[in-house]
Amino acid sequence: MTYRALASKVALLPLALVLIGLGGCGLKHPTANLVKGKQLFIQKCGVCHTLSHASTKGSIGPNLDDAFRQDRKDGIKSTSIQGLVDYWIQYPNSQGVMPARIFTGQDAQDVASYVGQVAAIPGQDTGALLTAVKITVPVTAASGKTVFTGVGGCGACHTLAAAGTSGTVGPDLTARLAKDCADPASKKVRGASLTQCIMTAIVKPYAYIPSGYKAGVMPSNFSQTLSSSQIKALVKFISGVALGAGAGRHRVVAPAPPTFFGESSSA
User: Fold this and answer.
1) Cβ-proximal residues to 208 (8 Å cutoff; 6+ apart), any chain
2) 117 and 166 inside one domain
3) Looking at the structure, do residues 154 and 98 belong to the same domain, yes or no?
4) % helix / strand / coil in the chain, to the nearest 5?
5) What SS3 class is residue 109?
6) What pTM did the predictor assign?
7) Where among 128, 163, 182 does a domain terminate?
8) Structurally, how many domains does the chain consist of?
9) In terms of domains, do 26 and 59 share one?
10) Given a cut of 60, is residue 40 above it in pLDDT?
11) For 178-209, how does the pLDDT look when each residue is reduced to its tens digit (9 = 90+)?
12) Within 10 Å of residue 39's Cβ, how many Cβ atoms?
């Protein structure tokens, strides 16, 4: 739905509500943090929405570049698009899958501002926005957990008890990860070790699809949106959780972390 379409749809609503829905939030939060908006968008929205500047390719919800391309041609201002996005965050389609108020307050304003600035705009983010997500981090389980629950957006789709997440779009990693990686068909294409399996599942998610799921849901461009150290940290965190969970049931020897993008395993 374009800005014009929504504006006509809400024309019969009380003026105060229209102002709140289509941009009035700017009165409450006059200064938006675009860097944080991008980070939050990738964390919770990218799995469902395509947005070129954020390098997200979700297909469950509307492609936001397509949604606003005509509006850009019609001269609709970024602030108006921002207001519409803020309205969508507060009052999504009740027949869809998007939860109402997935963000509130300043967070909602930051996300709406970022989308309003970049949706359907050619090119790529620059400056602080370019490095908002893809950064070098220590290859530790703690860093991996931060990526999992933060900019990686993993928790939005996956349940993992150790991360405190309860997403249901993708496989329950607490219950299924070790079993799925042990599947002979998985080992054939994702590698025999647990760390190889997890690495492949992140950078080539459709090399093997766990039973009950289909292609097209998990982003396939993490090797572009995350740094190699962020991905290695993710593997370290997830594999450590899986090995710990299985220690009481199976005797597992953890292999050395796999190399990535030509780097040495000691990196």
Assistant:
1) 183, 185, 186, 189, 190, 200, 201
2) no
3) no
4) 55, 5, 45
5) helix
6) 0.70
7) 128
8) 2
9) yes
10) yes
11) 999 999 999 999 999 999 999 999 999 999 99
12) 21
